[in-house]
What we know:
Blueprint: H1 3-7, E1 14-18, H2 24-34, E2 38-42, H3 48-58, E3 62-65, H4 70-76, E4 84-87, E5 98-99, H5 100-106, H6 117-122, E6 124-129, E7 139-143, H7 144-159, H8 165-168, E8 172-175, H9 182-195, E9 198-201, H10 207-217, E10 221-224, H11 226-234, E11 248-251, H12 258-272, E12 277-280, E13 282-283, E14 290-293, E15 307-309, E16 314-318, E17 337-342, H13 354-360, E18 361-363, E19 369-379, E20 384-390, E21 395-397, E22 400-402, H14 404-411, E23 417-427, E24 432-441, H15 443-446, H16 450-461, E25 475-477, H17 491-501
Parallel strand pairs: 1-2, 1-3, 3-4, 4-5, 8-9, 10-11, 11-12, 24-25
Antiparallel strand pairs: 6-7, 13-14, 14-15, 15-20, 16-17, 17-19, 18-19, 19-20, 21-22, 23-24
Helix pairs in contact: 3-4, 11-12
Keywords: Ligase
Pfam families: AMP-binding (PF00501), AMP-binding_C (PF13193)
InterPro entries: AMP-bd_C (IPR025110), AMP-bd_C_sf (IPR045851), AMP-binding_CS (IPR020845), AMP-dep_synth/lig_dom (IPR000873)
Amino acid sequence: MDFRGVFALKPNDVVALFSPNTIEYPIVCHSIVGSGAIVAPTSAALTALELNAQLKTSRARLIIVHSSLYQTAEKAVRGTSVEKVILLDGALPVDGETTCEYLASTCTPLPLKEISQAEASTKPVFICFSSGTSGPSKGVVTTHQNLTSNLQQWRSHMLDSGSSDQQVKRNTTIAFLPFSHIYGLNLYMCQCLLWGTTVVILPRFDLDQYLECVEKYRPDELALVPPIALMIVKDSRVSKYDLRSVKRIMSAAAPLTNELSSALEAKFKELYQTEVFCTQSWGLTETSPMATAVPNDRMDKRESGVGCITHNMEFRFVDPETMTDVSTNPDGTSEPGEIWCRGPNVTKGYYNNEEATKAAFHVEPDGTRWFRTGDIGVIDKEGYVSIQDRIKEMIKYKGLQVIPSELEGKLIDHPDIEDAGVVGMWVDEMATELPVAFVVLSSEARERKSSSVLKEIHTWLNPKIANHKRLRGGIHVIDQIPKSPSGKILRRQLKDLLKSKKPKAQL
């Protein structure tokens, strides 16, 4: 459908999309792009206040809203540049608003239009908002070139490993990841269209519904995020379903520990006597998103990290304090460093935010721009990358580094723990940070005295970790670990809980 005539949209006008996953979503999304406008996908989980902030950032002229979210959107548009609210679903308007179904019946079909290389490399097609786990959410500019390059990078990455085009294609995929997130947007609305993959759309994640769909539609590969992987490992309901069609699991969007990856593979072997390979890829909204992946012919490297660098990308591993490249050890593995990258899939910057754009890039004297990812990682002699943690999330205990994700991986391996999150707590009298854990206990453990359970966890964990990594800030029981829609732990919320608890150091 052509939005230009109905709403006098001009090139580079922004249209926000506020909806859960629906069959209409990709149709409308690609129609907006075809009209020459920019799509700003927004998470269906946002509050009116959060949506208002994103609408102000994107300066959207229109917002297309699912009817279930209309009241939230109605509040959110106040004080923004939004001129019109359009309903995504249904033939009947709410409060006189226009519906997409009505527009489709009146709009002229759009002819296909080729764009020049210059336009593809500069014209935004999406404004995808970052997760905001370590600061305010920013609008990441994704151009045509960013997205199409990443589609080709993924295909080439797999073909190089000896796979045929047919093997690279998925037969079916279950779409529960939000279309508003770059992972779901790229995978479901672009990759699957390119490959002709059948997409089964779920409006939101529900474990039973998801498992029913896997059993019914028999996908050979699952695209997951770590919280879902954890559910499959820990939840007894999984055994009721036949998931033996699955041959490979790919996790992304948040760190997947080796412990959880191995437990996931073991679960399939236990239930179905089948061998499933679980791999992890890595990227960011700013890399559109994939930057590394494990090739099909190197499953032996799946426990080494997040795979190797994709085509046409360059990485540097830089000491964030000295701003110089890190050294390489005798075994060929680099010292840990912040990953800097560049390539055709890397964003030009943040929408209407020159300050954030300037801070995110290191510019060489010759004009070469390196995107500073904020992730600490290492690379081995074969070019395989391992991510340690976010710079902002690293804990320093008496000058020694403690990696939260490493401790979380150990903790969720304990039979009494369903989920875990680790943060640092600053203690003035010790002039250092202490690692603190928040855990969700199993139903059986919750029936026992919590103090004895936590003591058992300390006793079990301490021999498995270095002395400086011990949870000297304590372990606290909560009902749920706060996470973003993509599965990233919201550590700021855990730190807010610390402020209210005011725990004492446990030396």
